[in-house]
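Per reviewer request, we include the raw input and output of the structure prediction for the construct analysed in the revised manuscript.
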Amino acid sequence: MFSSQRQLKMPRKMFVIFGASNILWMVFTVSQAFKIETFPENKIVAQIGDVVSLTCRTTGCELPSFSWRTHLDSPLNGQVRNEGSNSTLTMDPVGFRNEYSYLCTAICGSEKREKGIQVEIYSFPKDPEIHLSGPLEVGKPVTVTCLVPDVYPFDRLEMNLLKGNHLLQNKDFVEPMERKSLETKSLEVTFTPTNEDIGKALVCQAKLHIDEIDFKPKERETTKKLQVYISPKNTVISVNPSTRLQEGGSVTMTCSSEGLPAPQIFWSKKLDNGNLQLLSGNSTLTLIAMRTEDSGIYVCEGVNQVGKNGKEVELIVQEKPFTVEISPGPQIVAQIGDSVVLTCGVTGCESPSFTWRTQVDSPLSGKVKTEGSKSTLTLSPVGFENEHSYLCTVTCGRKKVEKGIKVDLYSFPRDPEIEMSGLPVNGNPVTISCRVPNVYPSDRLEIELLKGESIIGNKNFLENIDKKYLETESLDMTFIPTTEDTGTVLVCLAKLHIDEMEFEPKQRQSTQTLYVNVAPRDTTILVSPSSILEEGSSVNMTCSSNGLPAPKILWSRQLNNGHLQPLSENSTLTLTSTKMEDSGVYVCEGINQAGIDRKEVELIIQGRGNYQDYFSPELLVLYCSSSLIIPAIGMIIYFARRANMKGSYSLVEAQKSKV
């Protein structure tokens, strides 16, 4: 209130002065807040072809207006974009027409601000290029050209050409530039390669000396490894076994040639007209089954990128009588059901004719196919009707040659099969059968049966001689297993004794591990506290039985008709709160794969007050002394069994559930 009264009493002149000072202060504050800045700040260095953006930004003004110009009032050659307090001038791409100082002017009301950015350009975009006038051959001059493409300003360019660590040439391009343009500058050097140049490298260095402009890279370099060539020479041919051959023979000719890189070898045959017929691109040329027309001059040439060098050799092939070969040989062993191909081939005859027959003139039972100097007889599938000697007759002109091949058969396709007459049980006889299916010839078959390392049976089948059909033979042995046999391996071993035939396998076997079972026995029942109980008591009946595998326990109650009522599969059967009707015969059975063993117990539940008939005087003192302990224990067992035991049973409850 005091302050307000003082203001009201202020003189009019002082009030005017005070108001004017406030306005001046506001104008001063506004003028101080309106600023302009550029990005980049003063200068930008750009490579020709790049995209360059200049940004002008103001502070302290809500709606500034912008304008751009060059200091020479040349065209902007760019696109201007204004957004609020920012203005951007974009030059895409930047070039010679943009090498100016650009001024950004910003106006806010009556205020004007201006700031400039210098745009400087250069071009040094690529590494130098190295070009050769041709391949580098030892002893022959070659010109190396080093190019630096699209450089500006080229009057600042320096180039060096080195071979290894040795400077071949240096060049500066100090001539004045008549106009602003991109130039490709080059440096040429001619030299003669030597063997010492192998493995060296040509290095072309380019440097752009513009220290006042900050850009990278100011130096560029290209390296080219020298590939020095030596023209092929000293071509040599070796012939094995000889340059004179018999018709049908073979010859191997090997050629080598020196040069760098190692020459590629080409083999050709010189034709009658002098032309060359290309045969191979390998250093070794092998000619097999030669004929008289294979005689002639053979040429080897070593060729690489810079030249070639050749050598000749003459082969002479003499006539030889034709020969017949039958394959796979004089004898073939085949498994019944397979496919067999007999091949008859001729060498030394241009137009042979073929015939096939069996030695006993039986049907061929096969398919014949003849092509040129080869004829095949295919037996598919091969069977008993094909077990013959086959003859191939070849006629060439007036001469005949005959070759034979014998076809032998066998069948031994699968491993033996082991079967048992039943489950191996300790002390009970069991028969083991070892079967060998589809065997031929069965008169050569032997079967052995082993238990562990001991032979328990052996059989030969000599009685089947001269029988031509597939047989399934077996060996049967009976023995009494014991528990000691568990884990023993039964081995059925079949052998086909045909030593004159080459085939695999001649022996097959199968194995089976014995697991001997023991029927349940020594079944016992333990009743706690007694088989005679007072009504309302609880009783535990525990059953055990020996056997292999461990017998399964089954509790039942024998009904009046003799049938068994299943009760539990636990070893312990618990009855809680017994009734007199729970009295009866209870049966425990031990059961496994080998048999069943049973044990019975009679449970007597007597009514209260009749217990004296079952107590002897000798037990009276014991009964009296334990009268306090037994009820407590009985109650504990009762509640525990009823709550937790899975095998608890109450006949009364069972009868209630049926009702």
